[in-house]
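wait is this the right file?? whatever heres the structure
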C-alpha cells in the first residue's frame, strides 16, 4: 500500500452471506495496514455485521427497503441518496473496491470522487463500465471449485495486503442481547452438549429431506440439548420434523431471535447443523461452534464454511452443483436432497462431540 492510500471503501451491498464472506478481505487490509480507515457501503438488510464492526470505521447504509416503499423516483429517496454520497465523498477515500460486481453496486461509482475504482474481471450486468482499475480474475465468478472468500481476498491482495489468514471479525453482542439469550437457554441441561439445528433455507432444493431430519433428532433427543432456529415461517417445517419423532424436550427459537441474537446463540452452542444457508455462514463467522453444512444444489467448495472446526456433507451426483433454485430433473426431483443419509450425519456428530 502506498503512503497516500490511507482510506479504502468497500462496496458489498447484499446479501447477508455475501457480506460475511467479504469480511476477511476487510480484516486482511486492516491487519496489514492498521492505520488504514475502512468504509463500507451496505444495504439495510445486510448491515448487521458491518455497522459497529470494530474493523469498519464508517458504515454507509442504503435503506433500500424504505426506498422501495416510497417509489423509485421519490424526491426524499434522491435527497437521502445524495446525503450518503456527500458523506462518502467528504472522507476522501483513495480507493473503492466493487466486490459486488453487479450493476447495483457499479452504478454508485460515477457519483464517488475516488481516484481508484477497483474491480475484478468476470462480473455481470455491465458492472465494468464505471471502474477504472480492472484486474484479471484468477477464477471465474461462479467457479464451483473456488471459494468466494478467496475471491474476495483477491481485492485485498491487489492493494498489497497479506491474505494468508482468513479471519472474521464481528460486532460484539450488546448486553441486552446476552441477557435475552441467557433467558432463552435458562432451561437447558448444562451437563449435555448444545446443538443448534437450522433446517430451512430460501431454496427448496437446498433443504435436506424432512424424514432424515426426524431420524437424526430421534437419535439426538436424549444425548444433547436440541435447539431449533430459523424464521417464523420455518415453524411449519420444524413441526413436521418433530411430529415424526418422540422428542419432547427440544427448544424451538424459530422467529424468536433477530440475526444479532442468533449470532450470540451460536456462540453458546457446541455444534450448528444447517443446509447451505445464512445460518451456516453466521455460525462460521462467530467461530466458537463446530459447523456441519449439508449441501445439495449448491457448490460446497465455493461457499461452505471451512477450517478445523467445519465439516461438509455433500452428495455425488452428475448434475450437481447446478446452482439453480429449481431442480431440472423430471424424474426424482430434488434427488440431491436425499442422497446424504441420516447415518452419515449421525456418525459425524458422534465424531465431533464424543
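ok assuming it is, sequence goes like this
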Amino acid at each position: 500500500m502506498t503512503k497516500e492510500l490511507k482510506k479504502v471503501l468497500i462496496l458489498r451491498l447484499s446479501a447477508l452471506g455475501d457480506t460475511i464472506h467479504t469480511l476477511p478481505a476487510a480484516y486482511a487490509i486492516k491487519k496489514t495496514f492498521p492505520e488504514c480507515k475502512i468504509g463500507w457501503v451496505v444495504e439495510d438488510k445486510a448491515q448487521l455485521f458491518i455497522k459497529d464492526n470494530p474493523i469498519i470505521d464508517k458504515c454507509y447504509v442504503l435503506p433500500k427497503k424504505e426506498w422501495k416503499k416510497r417509489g423509485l423516483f421519490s424526491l426524499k429517496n434522491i435527497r437521502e441518496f445524495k446525503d450518503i454520497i456527500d458523506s462518502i465523498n467528504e472522507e476522501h477515500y483513495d480507493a473503492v473496491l466493487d466486490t459486488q460486481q453487479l450493476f447495483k453496486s457499479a452504478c454508485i461509482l460515477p457519483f464517488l470522487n475516488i481516484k481508484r475504482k477497483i474491480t475484478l474481471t468476470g462480473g455481470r450486468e455491465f458492472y465494468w463500465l464505471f471502474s477504472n482499475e480492472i484486474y484479471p480474475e484468477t477464477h471465474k465468478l461462479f467457479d464451483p471449485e473456488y471459494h468466494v472468500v478467496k475471491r474476495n481476498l483477491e481485492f485485498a491482495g491487489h492493494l498489497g495486503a497479506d491474505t494468508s489468514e482468513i479471519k472474521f471479525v464481528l460486532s460484539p453482542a450488546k448486553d441486552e442481547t446476552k441477557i435475552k439469550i441467557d433467558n432463552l437457554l435458562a432451561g437447558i441441561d448444562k451437563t449435555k452438549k448444545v446443538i443448534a439445528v437450522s433446517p430451512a433455507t430460501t431454496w427448496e432444493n437446498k433443504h435436506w429431506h424432512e424424514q432424515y431430519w426426524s431420524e437424526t433428532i430421534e437419535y439426538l433427543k436424549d444425548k444433547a440439548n436440541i435447539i431449533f432456529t430459523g424464521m417464523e415461517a420455518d415453524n411449519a417445517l420444524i413441526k413436521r420434523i418433530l411430529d415424526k419423532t418422540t422428542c419432547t424436550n427440544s427448544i424451538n427459537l424459530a422467529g424468536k431471535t433477530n440475526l444479532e441474537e442468533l449470532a450470540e446463540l451460536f456462540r453458546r452452542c457446541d455444534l450448528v447443523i444447517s443446509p447451505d444457508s445464512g445460518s451456516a455462514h453466521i455460525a462460521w463467522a462467530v467461530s466458537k461452534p463446530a459447523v456441519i453444512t449439508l449441501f445439495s444444489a449448491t457448490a460446497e467448495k465455493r461457499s461452505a464454511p471451512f477450517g478445523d472446526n467445519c465439516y461438509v456433507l455433500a452428495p455425488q451426483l452428475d448434475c450437481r452443483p447446478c446452482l439453480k433454485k429449481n431442480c431440472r430433473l423430471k424424474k426424482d426431483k430434488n434427488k440431491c436432497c436425499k442422497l446424504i443419509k441420516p447415518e452419515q450425519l449421525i456418525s459425524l456428530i458422534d465424531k465431533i462431540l464424543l
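The mean pLDDT is 94. so i think its the right one actually
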